[in-house]
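Ticket #346: bound-state structure for NAP.
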Amino acid sequence: MKILKGAEVSAKIKEEVAQIAAGLQEVPKLAIIRVGENPDDISYEKGATKKLTSFGLEVESKVFPGDISDEAFKREFVAINADASVDGILMLRPLPKQINEQDIEKMIDPAKDLDGISPVNIAKVFSGDTSGFAPCTAEAVVCMLKMNDIALSGKRVAVVGRSMVVGRPLSMLLLHENATVTICHSRTANLPEVCREADILAACVGKAAMINHTYVKKDAVVIDVGINVDENGKLCGDVDFADLEGTASAATPVPGGVGGVTTAVTGPGSANVLGGSFVAMKLYGDCIDDMILKYPAAMKCAFGENPKGAYGQNGRKAPVTRMAVAAQLREMLFKAQRYAKEVEAA
Ligand code: NAP
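RESOLUTION: The complex was predicted; output attached.
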């Protein structure tokens, strides 16, 4: 069983973001908003700051006391949201009860909303519009699969969990990749049987080690989103990882899997905003050009008879926003890389 490691995917994203950031005149700045002193939030903030700084981005923490009033927090939030020097915002949730989180979701500038909490970005995820931001965890799962060259188009995927934070947006992103998605939840009848139909199984349940080999089809890929603490106080996922040996072809561990990619995926988004999208477009476009020269046969399979036309038309000249164009080119580059590998292996 192949172990799908978050660190490897994160390193690839780092390379990509560093290249974009290096082409910019100003370093993109991300604000991490934390309310209160929850140790999990502090540890997430530290990890995200270290990772994104190492990507060449600037990170500034905005910390507020846990008992801040709804009114005072909203005042602070409005100022951060409107601050032209802040390109992207990551807000650690849940917020304390006295703050109306739904109001904040509606207030955040969709163009700075790196974790896809704004109704505008959620609508984009559900309608298949790639010009917005998806929730980081859902995005991290798709990234994990794509960067490990795991094909999604035409594959059967079971997503266990239907929360708005993970299960639902993940299902929509997978649908956008042309997977056939089954969304499972606590009322799904015959859950192991339904999961055994899947080529890819994503566990987003929040129940320690619930998914074992009886849920997994032979040679399926298993992605564990869960972050739980077991009876011994040890961090563990929703999947009994060791039990999958001999059944799954690949799986993500916990820790060391999806969690490490969750913060990394905000990197391309934050580098992409403002001027970054021009640099990103050029970077991805140039990489596709190189691929066309190097692997003409594979690119014909990927893009048809006129590979350059395919990306030119869908890419640089299309009347969509720069971020969407950069995102499209990034998608095309993934596709080109996958076909080149398939053709090379054949
Ligand atoms: P959540 O809001 O509690 O949702 C859990 C989902 O699992 C619900 O849809 C629930 O179904 C379903 N479920 C619960 N028990 C089930 C069962 N026995 N059989 C089938 N389905 C069941 O949790 P969440 O926020 O989506 O998070 C899920 C997990 O991901 C948690 O472990 C969380 O810590 C982790 N997480 C990880 C990251 C990361 O960065 N890796 C980020 C966020 C969350 P119903 O809808 O029917 O109740």
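RESOLUTION NOTES: Residues 137, 160-163, 165-167, 184-188, 191, 204-207, 225-228, 258-259, 262 surround NAP (CB under 6 Å).
TICKET STATUS: resolved
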